[in-house]
Amino acid sequence: MQKKQVAVIDVGSSKITAIIGERGINKTFIIKGRYSFDYDGFANGEFFNLKQLKQVLNSVADCIIKGSLEKIETVYVGVPGDFTRVYIRDSQLSFPKKRKIVEEDVDALFDSAFVMTSAKYTLINRSAIVYELDDFRRLANPVGSISEILSGKLSFIMCSNYFIEAVKNCLVDCGLKNVECVSSALAQAMYLIEAEMRDRIALVADVGYITTTFSVIQGDGIIYQHSFDFGGGYITAGLVEKFDIDFNSDQSGERIVFSKNLPEYFISDI
Question: What are phi and psi of 58, to 5 degrees?
Answer without folding.
Answer: -65, -40
